Amino acid sequence: MAQITLENAWVEFPVRKAGSNTNFAALKDISLDLKSGDRLGIMGPNGSGKTTLLRVLTGIYPPTRGTYSSSGDLGSMLDLNAGINSKSSGRDNIMFRSKLLGRPKKLALATVEDACEFGGLAEFIDQPVETYSSGMKMRLTFSIATAIPSQILVMDEWLSVGDDAFQAKARERIDHLVNQAEILVLASHNKNLLGGLCTSFMKLNGGSGVLSSTLE
Amino acid sequence: MGSEYLLRHWKLLRAGLLMGWQDFITLGIGSRLGKWWPTIGLAIRVTFVGLVLGLVLGARSPDYIPWLATGWTVWGMISSAITGTSEAMNGNKGLMLALPMPKEGFVVKVIVKELLLLVQNSLVVLGVLIVFRVPVTPAVLLLIPGLLMTAVFLYGLGLILAPMVAKYKDLGPFIASIIGVMFFVLPIMWQPESIQSELAHLILGLNPLYHYLQIVRLPLLSEVPTGLNYLLAGIGAIVVLGIGMLVMRQTRNKIVYWT
């Protein structure tokens, strides 16, 4: 059983300015209790704390006040480019990232295959990633991120990357992953997307959140 | 000390080994000699400094260049590991914000890479040993405990320095300066036999880095380090590891905010 619990969680960043020793609260007193079957949509203007909240939910930012706990395996799709070695080939990057994530070799090889066929990278898979266009890079990391369903899926506004043709293909696969996941957390500005996928919503504003069961 | 504790440590060791190996094999990728450059550079430094100092300082004993080569090779590993691990968390913000990962893994990664580079750089030592016909005895096996103790010490030191450098950004350049000076303070270019005063001996002996240098370098020369070298290196490794784990416990949840 997957679950994520946040109790009165705060995230406060130290403000680095000469002579001052203050904090900036990026999240204020957020409580959440997510269980299997929950689909949470997070919305709010830029700088309202969406990405910060996602990072708290994946355990990257431990709350500076309050508590966080989670169980269940986590598929985080936050910054997919982090840790990609641009001097290495696409193939080497997939093999390395898969190993780092503890995936079996068979799955890693299948991911390479997928990047070649689904991602259309067959010609470039042995070229250094620095020679890739940004769309190609996106398709490479997409293959890694979507290779295996996870119990908890945390996504930050990234469905809209890539050209129309790829987006249509990608959408189908994401739908599949979303259906497989026990818990989905998705941050987006796109109300239609959130409305279609999520059953509860958190509206963030200036770090404070209001939970509601409707979009309005 | 439950199974969760072991699992966490296995995970961070595994991540560190993988990342360190990856760093090593992608070293200098794209250039023809690529990852051999650290070794070529070392060979050039040892050759020229060995010859020049030999000439300038007059008659040098034939054991000078082997001493210089082993010292420089081992110090290269220790110094790069210290400066590298101290920046291990400060320099990995991007990855830290994208993947939930045990932070100690970044320290392990640096040490693994430097150890692999040490193996490669040992080719220079091998060349020198052959040219100067230094006999190889079973004492060379003492490399294993020497490297183990040094690796534990470097890991512990990294756990202390990396969070501190993440918090106090001025500490990084300071550590780099101290490590730079150590090259002259430690008997790398000079031999301890040339020390005249007791006080200087004492000062050298009080430098913990000296003992780690010796327990790795001397076995390369098929010489046996002293019991005192091992005693101090062993105590140092345990104490530093203990402090390092305490520092990590205190700072683990804060590091990501500091980087």
Compact overview of the structure:
The complex is a heterodimer of chains A (216) and B (259). With 216 residues, chain A is an alpha/beta fold. Chain A has helices at residues 50-57, 90-100, 105-117, 134-145, 164-180, 191-197; strands at 3-14, 23-35, 39-43, 65-71, 74-77, 152-156, 183-187, 200-205, 208-212.
Account of the 3D structure:
- Chain A is of the alpha/beta class and 216 residues long.
- Chain A has 6 helices and 9 strands, in the order βββαββαααβαβαββ.
- Chain A has helices at residues 50-57, 90-100, 105-117, 134-145, 164-180, 191-197, and strands spanning 3-14, 23-35, 39-43, 65-71, 74-77, 152-156, 183-187, 200-205, 208-212.
- Chain A has a 6-stranded mixed sheet with strand order 5-6-7-3-8-9, sandwiched between helices. Chain A has a 3-stranded antiparallel sheet with strand order 2-1-4.
- In chain A, helix 5 (164-180) links the parallel strand 6 (152-156) and strand 7.
- Chain A starts with a strand and ends with a strand.
- The mean pLDDT of chain A is 88.
- Chain B has 259 residues and is an all-alpha fold.
- Chain B is built from 11 helices and no strands.
- Chain B has helices spanning 3-25, 37-56, 64-86, 93-98, 104-131, 143-167, 171-185, 198-206, 208-220, 227-251, 255-258.
- The radius of gyration of chain B is 19 Å and the shape is globular.
- Chain B starts with a helix and ends with a helix.
- The mean pLDDT of chain B is 92.
What is the approximate shape of chain B?
A: globular
Spell the H/E element sequence of chain A.
EEEHEEHHHEHEHEE
- Structural class estimated from helices and strands of chain B: mainly alpha
Question: Order of SSEs of chain B, N→C?
Answer: HHHHHHHHHHH
Largest sheet: number of strands, sense, barrel closure of chain B:
none
Overall average pLDDT of chain B = 92
- What profile does the largest beta sheet of chain A have? 6 strands, mixed
Percent helix of chain A: 25-40%
Termini gap of chain B: 30 Å
Which segments of chain A are poorly predicted (pLDDT under 50) over 5 or more consecutive residues? none
Biggest interface pair, counts: A-B, 24 and 21 residues
